[in-house]
Amino acid sequence: MRLARLTALTLILLAGCQTGPDPVLVDEPLDPGVYDYPVESALAATVVGTPAEFRAQLPMDYPVEEIHLWLQPEREVPDLLWYHERLRVSVVRQNGPAPLVFSIGGTGADNRSRTVKIMEAILAASGFHVISLASPTHPNFVVAGSTTGVPGRVGEDVRDLYRAMQAAYARVQNDIEVTDFYLTGYSLGGWHAAFLAHLDERERAFGFSKVLLVNPPVSLFESIAILDQMLEKSLPGGMSGVKDYFDQVFEGFSEIYSRAEFVDFSDDFLYRAYRDLGPSEDKLGALIGLAFRLSANNMAFTADVMNGGGYIIPQGAQLKTSTSLTTFFKAGARAGFIDYLDDFYEPYFTSRQPGLTHEDLVFEASLERIEDYLRDNEKIGMLTNANDIILGPGDLDFLRRVFGERAIILPNGGHLGNIEHRFVVAVISKFFRSQPGS
Amino acid sequence: MSACPQPISRRRAAAWRCWVLLFGLLVLPACAANEAVPRGEMLEPPIVQLESDDPDEEFPIDVHDPWEGWNRQVYLFNARFDQMVFIPVVESYRFVVPDPVRDSVDNFFTNIDSLITFANLMLQGKPMAAAQTVFRFALNTTLGVFGLFDPSTAIDVPQHKEDFGQTLGVWGVGDGPYMVLPVFGPSNVRDTAGLITDRVAFWLIDPLGASSFQSDYPPVLALNIINARDRVEFRYYQTGSPFEYDLVRFLYTKKRQLDIAK
Q1: A25 touches chain B (CB under 8 A)
Q2: What is the CATH number of the domain that holds A175?
Q3: What's the pTM value of the predicted model, to 2 decimals?
Q4: Which residues form the domain of A291?
Q5: For residue B4, is pLDDT > 50?
């Protein structure tokens, strides 16, 4: 989801400038302050995030080690995806004993994605060891972490994540002193965290004593449908309108950029662009839809490569590192996540498991399936926003009902738009720092 | 600008040859044929239809890139070069050199390069911005001790960044085919011509001895290169997208359009 911002941030990176001011180290307890997140529109919040003046001061210069796990040596990685042979996992160690928090990224995120880094910074500043993992929907995980290479199915993905978490812990076990195991994830990663906690009750590799779900979807299929349709709904003509849309967006950017005060794209550029241009809800929706489409496209293409083609790539086509992939990009962008589920994912699993129906696949991918487990479990907390765009009708009530007092529901912020807000950062930090049961 | 015009020395002639060679290297790929999308005649067509039903459909991701096959190979080379050479060097540099010193190094080279910006602002007919650039240069060179410090930013003197590729763009020259330059990264024919012109002109004019200073002291040149990489946060394959080449090509093209319109 953060890809809308990734696109803009990549622009910043290409501009070659440093992003933002030097971060200030937090050595005092995070002050919750008041919740005064300023962007009311759910779509706008999702796109522009937290304006600088409302952000928590998070340290960004703590040491992070990246480890590379070779989980499937028997699996041949095509040349085209050589850089994904090993799963990249980030590790932050504290000096001395501390709890270890596993943090799972949202749709299309890896261990270095922006929101993953924000979660990592919050947890590191709160005094925990942190291991950050990619979402099973990220190409790196599809290639290096997935046993099927067909991402999206809860049972398989959660088992693959669990295996990767154990491998990562085994790698660092001797260097860190762990007093307790915690688990968190945002967006799709929050949904994974719920199922991971459930799996861990049986397998007991970790025995998590605190689990925080941040802006999770309830029903995966429902949330995907919302995001997938956002593009068609917001953009007349769907993909055919993308050219005009981009021209307009860049014209707006250009107008702001050409004012003398803007030397380059800074971290607050998007917010100021939003404030100055006042884009319509449709424009914002289209951007979110496009970002989601891009994630889905990356995932589906990678899955197709790993399974010999047939979905986007003609079966048996030899893709070399010099082969143009633009045609596949465009074809994949015209299709959506739902097409992937209908035409690739569902046939893949129903052909291997006789009797499995579409309804089964939809039901197993909803938190409703583990509702009883989530309801009775004091150690699991949930943080979301009342106007989170990925929630369908009734989902918010479900979360309220299931988590009761353990649900923190903020009035605005869209989907993760407020994740850097002082208050939200303090809530996450406090959840893990408070004594169990208090 | 240049204090004392000198005859082109042997060293500079050698540098010239180097540039000509580099230019040849860059233009050679014109001969390399583009890798076509695999023909589907003998292959089962995929489930997702590859061609659009809408003949008028225009995708912003499409950038004129007739040398794509070669460019993709250079992109791969750059990624590996980055991984094996550039990033380890930059990381050691960051580890060894404290932040304020690295900032000073960057200030120093930025200050020197502002002469290129100045020349291009003049060529683009932007005297106000050119004056600001000269003022910056003067202030940073004197009060800022040869550009090691940046007092201009402290007093909010606007900073500009212009190159000859942008100047050509302002004059109405189109992008030309997209190119990925070895080590330098994304470019196009216009910007490559601009890059070479800027560098050769800088070398020949040698304003205030800034250029010969670097060639007399190779470590300074090395520092310039390391600093340049240090200041770009981009890491290959960090997007994780199998379409990163396409995305970078698109964003580079758009970014340059914005720079030229600015």
Answers
A1: no
A2: 3.40.50.1820
A3: 0.86
A4: 225-359
A5: no
Task: Encode pLDDT of A1-49 as tens digits.
Answer: 444 444 444 443 333 333 332 333 333 444 556 899 999 999 999 999 9
What's chain B's Rg over C-alpha atoms? 21
A337 and A393 in a single domain? The answer is no
Q: Number of structural domains, chain A?
A: 2
Mutation to test the B interface, candidates A232, A334, A342, A344, most B Cβ within 10 Å: A334
Q: Kindly report the number of other CB atoms within 10 A of residue B113's CB atom.
A: 18
pLDDT of the residue at A287: 87
A375 within domain boundaries: yes
In order of A77, A331, B41, the CA distances from B46 in angstroms are: 21, 10, 12
A95 and A182 share one domain: yes
Those residues whose C-beta lies under 8 Å from the C-beta of residue B4, and which sit 6 or more positions away, are none
The model's pLDDT over B188-231, given as tens digits with 9 standing for 90+, comes to 999 999 999 999 999 898 888 878 888 888 889 899 999 999 99
- ipTM of this complex: 0.84
Contact residues, A window 177-206, toward B, CB-based 8 Å cutoff: none
β-pairing, B185-188 vs B178-181, is: antiparallel
Question: Among the three residues A333, A359, A385, which one is the final residue of a domain in this structure?
Answer: A359
Q: From A249, which residue of chain B is nearest by alpha-carbon distance?
A: B254
Contact A321 B56 (CB under 8 A): no
Residue in chain B lying closest to A262 (CA) = B158
In chain B, the number of structural domains is 1
Residues in chain B closer than 8 A to A6 (CB atoms): 239
- On the CB side of A122, CA atoms within 13 Å amount to 31
Q: Do A315 and B44 touch (CB under 8 A)?
A: yes
- Look at residue A317 in the predicted model and tell me its pLDDT: 87
| Domain-located, residue B234 | yes
One-letter amino acid for residue B23 of the chain: F
The two beta strands, A210-214 and A178-186, are: parallel
Is B240 at the interface with chain A, CB within 8 A?
yes
Q: Does residue B233 belong to the interface with chain A, where contact is any CB pair within 8 Å?
A: yes
Same domain, A187 and A282: no
Contact A110, B244 (CB under 8 A): no
A253 and A205 within one domain: no
B138 found inside a domain? yes
For residues A159 and A241, state if they share a domain. no
Cα A96 to chain centroid, rounded? 30
The closest CB to that of A321, out of B73, B232, B251, belongs to B73
Q: Is the pLDDT of residue A438 over 50?
A: no
Two structure tokens written together for B172:
């109405």
Distance from CA of A250 to the nearest CA of B (A): 8
User: Does residue A18 belong to the interface with chain B, where contact is any CB pair within 8 Å?
Assistant: yes
Whether residue B69 is contained in a domain is answered as yes
Residue A90 and residue A120 in contact, taking contact as beta carbons nearer than 8 Å: yes
A435 touches chain B (CB under 8 A): no
